[in-house]
Amino acid sequence: MTSITAINKKPYNVSFKRKIIDAHTHLGSWENTNYTIDSLDTFVKKPLDNGDIVEKMIVSNADCLNSANILDETTGNKKLLSMLNGNSHYVPLAVCQPNLTNGDATAVEKLINEHPEQFKGLKFHPREMQLPADSSLYDKYMEIAQKYNLPCLFHSDTTYDVKYPDGSTLPRNEFSRPEQIYKLAQRHKNVPVILAHMGGNSGQNTQAAVDLMVDSINNDRATLFADISWVNCDTKEKPDIITAIKKLMTTNKGDKTDRLLFGTDAPLGRFNPNGENGISPQTAYSKTVEDIQNAIKNAFGEKADALIDKIFYKNADDLFLCGKYKNPQKTLSCAKSKILPLGGVLLTAAAITGVFLHNKKSPDKK
Ligand SMILES: [Zn+2]
Fold first, then answer.
1. What is the residue extent of each domain of the chain?
2. R_g over Cα of the chain
3. What is the pLDDT of residues 229-239, one digit of tens each?
4. pLDDT tens column, 104-158
5. Could you tell me the distance, in angstroms and rounded to a whole number, from the CA of residue 345 to the centre of ligand 1?
6. Fold entry, domain 18-330
7. Could you tell me whether strands 169-170 and 162-163 are parallel, antiparallel, or unpaired per DSSP bridges?
């Protein structure tokens, strides 16, 4: 115990290899490509270029998201479990289709009851469903989320029109705007709701999402998170991620940087098995991780390591696996395993020791 405490007190200026949880990934079919487990295994099976290890990926089945060839909630989500086949690197979310069920969450609740140790959250894609995120058809699903302590990952999208250099305009999104998701989240204020892509990639769209997160915190109106998949994906400086961290560090309720999650949307886009522009998916993934970490280091100095630990691992671990935001009446498996069987205690202790040893082993001390 003494040694663990000693290691724990190690100052945060030590650079070490990290464990990562990717809070946003998919399997299944998307835009005419079928992604099998191999397309994600390629990221978890060996360390990234900087030595970091992707320990877990939070995953949902695109077969139930895509409006073409859609599988229903029961078929598609069960298919995800069979694709994952109990592989502990993956944490499944159940995709919900309130547009097709007319708001009836019975099938999803049955699925959760049948697989209580597997599904750790719900996934919604209002844009693909063409169902505005503030529709009452989501409410029964949010009640299920509350009842079973399930965070809800929402595809979030642009608040403002996006003008491209060639003069064309992408109009603001009609279904997945953060303000619409926030309206729903306020009706279920204790359910953790994650704004995937932080409102859509860059600039005023991402800042609109962050401003709503800060409003929800300052006024205690909802429990909003964001994942940073595709945010500033083509710049090294990551200006909107840095601004998001700064705004969340200084809310009226103090430091709320526990609300930001690293995610990639792999294996979509540049992370697909064929790569993009001659760059392999593994290289693209490593670069994504390194660029974000370097931007945080450049902006936050000695606070950077603690921030990176939170955004790349601890926040997702707390949210999806440890029930930090759970309904106090409920007991979650993560909490149970620490107090119940001896084996669980030993495993937990071994895991903790493993982390510290893993961190200690890396020698790039300066
Ligand atoms: Zn996605």
1. 18-330
2. 20
3. 999 999 999 99
4. 999 999 999 999 899 999 999 999 999 999 999 999 999 999 999 999 999 999 9
5. 35
6. TIM Barrel (3.20.20)
7. antiparallel
